[in-house]
Amino acid sequence: MKTIWFCLSRHLTTLALFLITGTVLAQYSARQSLAGGEAPKSNIRTETATPFPYRPMNTWQGQRFIFLPCPKGNENSSYDDFTGTRKRKDYVGRLAKVVSVSDFGGRVNLEFELEDNGEHVRARTLPNKESIKGLLLLDDLEKARQQWKGQTLWYKQLSLSTYDERTDRLGSLNVKKYAPVKVVEINPGWDEEKPLRFVLESSNGRLGFVDVNLSGTNVHSEVRHLSRFEEFFLTEDPKQKYKWPAGIWQAIENNRVIGGMSAEQVRMSWGEPEKTTRTAAGEQWTYTAGVLTFKNGVLVNMQ
């Protein structure tokens, strides 16, 4: 498929991350015209008011899915949960509607109808696992684009991923914590556990991506709380919300903590502690990087 619209010369190094997912976009468009402290901090959202509600597998009939792409080196691999041999290179980017769902002793059988040619394909889950490898709920993709494409978000991590299709290698792009990033595109990712790829432009014009799980649909329950949008992004500039001194923000942007920080400032830099303990010396927060001691909500010691 043609990917001319990605060809911006200043992005040659990271350009290849678009190629696979760009192919999916082109295929998707063509088929559209044919068809017409210790506990996890984020739990799956099940309320119907959210724009990205979780959809249990027994409610999938009538839902539309898109077959996910993969790195160049895996193009000859198969979509494992489907019966027969379903090569990725033959199905990537194709749209399929669920026409039947049935449960047999903890394994769910699903039948899909391909929208481009009416072909019927069948898939079956592993026992007690509510996911089918290699599929993304189309509704999540469309709503994510409507909500965030072209918008500025503030990135909570220290690096973005890059992909060079010529060498089939992943890389990384370092950024400051809470740096503004522009959402250039949202594409299907490579993994049903984090199936949406946010393609981002940093403040210096370089491109990278992060793969995100929005609704948790088609994500195994044990990892459904991971890779959520709120783990990676803020929708408002935190520097406008928190008028902290420049030295505090400099430490946070570089993922450091310094004496005199408030508990809230430490959370902004290092996140939630693995555990908290009250001692005679004060309240202690334990992280992989060390133990922090607070007195009256102020960081006084680091070990």
Task: Write up what this structure looks like.
The chain has 7 helices and 16 strands. It has helices at 17-35, 88-91, 138-148, 229-232, 238-241, 246-253, 263-270; strands at residues 64-67, 95-104, 107-114, 120-124, 135-137, 152-155, 159-164, 169-174, 179-191, 194-201, 207-212, 233-234, 275-279, 282-287, 290-295, 298-302. The strands form 4 sheets. A 5-stranded antiparallel beta sheet has the order 4-3-2-1-5. A 5-stranded antiparallel beta sheet has the order 11-10-9-6-12. A hairpin with a 5-residue loop joins strand 10 and strand 11. Helix 6 (246-253) runs parallel beside helix 7. The N and C termini lie far apart (55 Å). Mean pLDDT is 86; it is low at 1-49.
